[in-house]
Write a sequence for this structure.
């Protein structure tokens, strides 16, 4: 998988990944298209799966690494 794509290049069918300062994955979501991602903010059953805009998830988590 190619990585380190620019955020503006999200087209869909990518996995967006966020890492902490030690390089451990702390969050990920799936880009459905250039506007929406399938996301879950947590691992418990109380955290719902959500359809969010790319802007919303980047606003919450910062710039991701994009895997195609």
């Amino acid at each position: 998988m190619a990585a380190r794509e620019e955020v503006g290049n999200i087209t869909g069918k990518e996995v967006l990944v966020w890492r902490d300062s030690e390089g451990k994955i702390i969050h990920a979501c799936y880009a459905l298209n250039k506007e929406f991602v399938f996301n879950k903010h947590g691992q418990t059953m109380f955290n719902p799966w959500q359809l969010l805009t790319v802007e919303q998830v980047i606003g919450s988590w910062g710039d991701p690494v994009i895997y195609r």
Remarks:
- The longest strand covers residues 25-31.
- The chain is about 10% helix and 40% strand.
- Helices lie at 54-61.
